Amino acid sequence: xxxxxxxxxxxxxxxxxxxxxxxxxxxxxxxxxxxxxxxxxxxxxxxxxxxxxxxxxxxxxxxxxxxxxxxxxxxxxxxxxxxxxxxxxxxxxxxxx
Length: 97
Hints:
By secondary structure, this protein is mostly helical. 59% of the residues lie in helices and 0% in strands.
């Protein structure tokens, strides 16, 4: 039975992002780019827009990309639309437990 510990995942993200000198959000945006996913984000703050654009310059090590992918595949986390996708999230949680 695989279990997911969100605190452990968050700590892993903090440690890994610290290694690259970026935030966890920037780390995950860079990971998405490394996976070939186009990142679409919004902000009205110039600083946030610049940081999002700078994620293209973050060169993650292949082993870090793999580790984020592996740990993230065990996570079901949604900040928005959680009620609308509850049944799909419950199915995903059941598959990984």
